[in-house]
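To: structure desk
From: M.T.
Subject: fold request, one chain
Message: Could you run this one when you get a chance? Sequence is below, nothing fancy, just the single chain.
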Amino acid sequence: MSLIFNKKYIYNAGSMFNEAQQAARKNEGNELRKMFPSFIVDNPIDTDEFKHERPTNKKIFEVDYNGVRDADFVIFELDSNDSGTHMEFGLAVEQAINNKDKYLFAIVSDFRFKSGSFGNEIPGFGLNEMFSGAFFYEQLVKGEVPQIIVCDSHKSAREAIKAIVNNDTKDYLKQFDIKNIWK
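Reply: Done. Structure tokens follow.
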């Protein structure tokens, strides 16, 4: 559990460099707050201190690192192949290995992922094999509710978090984790 106010904490990671990405992140933050009104929802696009002046690289790192570190649940939008989001993912993987109460939700909505033409491997559409290998790392994929899953949408990630919080995890992997769809 997050040490911040003893509330559950969600961090939403994703690129926000163009109008469409910014709109998507704002919508995701709104949906998270609607679904989890008692949680802390850390959505970097909504960071007040960044609205009035451009933050330094160091400040961006500090704010994002703290959000990833403090979160119980971290959602990663990976379709844009943003190196900052990948950095956050790497940090969160290491943290989750050492914290069994930290859950990671990798969103891969690219239709090629579900095509199945690659057998049971992640297709090479921009996710390096070192990166996607974390999706299968044994320390994080144990049990019916693993610490890392691959979702096909932000909505699916929200529903997966809701299932964990409500302890409604019957058929959890079948409902939410798409990384093994070809098996």
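Reply (cont.): Residues 77 and 113 are 14 Å apart (CA to CA). Let me know if you need anything else for the meeting.
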